[in-house]
Specification:
single chain; 128 residues; mainly alpha; 0% strand
Amino acid sequence: MQRGSDRLSRHRDDEMKHELQGLLRSGHPTRSEEWNDPEPTADDDPQVWGGPVTPGSEGASLEGVRLELARILGRSSFPATPVELVRVLRRKNAPDALTEAVAGLPRKDQYATVQELARALTRTEGTP
């Protein structure tokens, strides 16, 4: 049952499906205009396109871990202890490996920013 709260009418929705049908079937861009295609990833981009980046995983740089943490935690989570951050990560359904890495940090430490947390995570993962 339609309640009339949609931004698009049923006819416009069908028209948009028809426009995307070639793209969905072919699996690659169907337009000849190169400017309309998405840009490929650059060599120095963080590896977040391949899935969640966790400390200790292959290609987990400081920038990648920081980006993943910032995406999940946001600004309102700081300053916080690892216990509080683990609670927030679990509530936001973060990857288990990331949650476990934060839970492995010293319980009495306090982190004011995502940068500090990412540094602590990448530093502790590199040490024996």
